[in-house]
Amino acid sequence: MAHHHFTRSDWLRAGIVIAVAVAALFFVYPFWPLDEVVQLGLDLQGGVRMVLEPEGIAEMDEKTKNDVLDQIMAILGNRVNQYGLTNPEIRVFGGDRILVNLPGTTDPEDARRLIGQTAMLEFRRVIKAGESKLDELIPFSSSQEVLRNREGIPYIVDREVLLTGAALSSAKVGTSTSLQTAGRYYILMEFNQEGAQRFVTIMGRMDVNELLAIVLDGTIYSAPAISESIKTAAAQGWRNIVDTTTITGDFDEEEVKILAIALRAGALPVGINIAEETTVGPTLGADSIRRGMMTIAIGFVLILIYMFAFYRILGFVGNLALILNMLIVFAALNVFGAVLTLPGFAGIILTIGMTVDANVIIFERIKEERRTGKSPLAAVRSGFEKSLSTLFDANITTLITAFVLLLLGTGPVRGFAVTLGIGVLGSLFCALVVSRLLLEKTRFSSFIPVKVIQEQ
Questions:
Q1: Residue 273 class from Cβ within 10 Å (0-12 exposed, 13-18 middle, 19+ buried)?
Q2: pTM, to two decimals
Q3: Is the domain 2-41+281-447 a CATH 3.90.550.10 member?
Q4: 108-116 and 62-83 are packed helices; what angle lies between their axes, rounded to 10 degrees?
């Protein structure tokens, strides 16, 4: 068997195949449950789906509209990520709405609070503070209005906004360490330079013990008195107060977290209405996963049996290629952090068919070559070479389709496109590199049957 010498390029190919197989096994570990292998889409793991409609968007011109949508998506993305929700999908939907998918979130209330916080932060001068929520305070002039704090106590404040959230560069949550207020949460604000300079100017205009209301979305969160120390600090220049100003109040942990996020991410440019909201239950998802995996498993096993029955030793090689390709698909989904959706299962089933299809084309070619009297190895070689163009044509068109679907499709269609695309690339690799290596370099090829056509 002289022709089974391994050349350098053969070793390289063998090395690549082994590396791919090992890597695939590594990334597909622990194999089950599925959600530990790949990220599951909303339809498989349950979660909250919201369609948001920015107010007044219909009246905007194209450019403004796109700017507003981009801004909202950036802010929501920022909030959702900081809140620690995994794998959110936020994108424009139907031209002027925004779709927010939050897989794995079971509480729509949380999601709503996160999105609903427009977080208009304002600093305003307090003219008069009420004592209890029953107080009736009347503004002294039209340049003033009454706002209430979270307990409902009224304050007369100037309408003039001294400083807005735009002055902040960040906002973090802290817990108080002093004895009187131990364990209380507060928000530490960090000004940007411009904001800090504005703050200095305000401090210069205000007297010690005057109250400065910190207003969020029309509610007073705290109204601290100007202290001697902060006036002195401010008088020494903006650098002294950039990161020392805090908002204290009776916050609970959840609230202070959402507040800080809202402050950091800035105010939404317009109000937002939730146009629709659905919660997908995880039980539905679990059922879909079971069915999807069953379909894949049954199809997989039937094809393995069919290939072996029909092509014997060639079929065995094809089956090895198919098993490797399935590992490659799941591993690639894991590596790219792609989301497996229900249509993704369809893509995988299609992949099984395509891998087999590629191998069938090659095997038929090899059998034909063998019938013309070529040696097994020569038959394998020319079989592969002659089926190349057919394979590439078929697979490239599918890849193009997958790519177009990925660009233009919505969530579920994309899920299908991703698994299909990965599957096509995998099936090409498995057919052209793996099957070929096995047939050319091992004893398998000597088992290819010869059917000489009888002379009539």
A1: exposed
A2: 0.60
A3: no
A4: 130
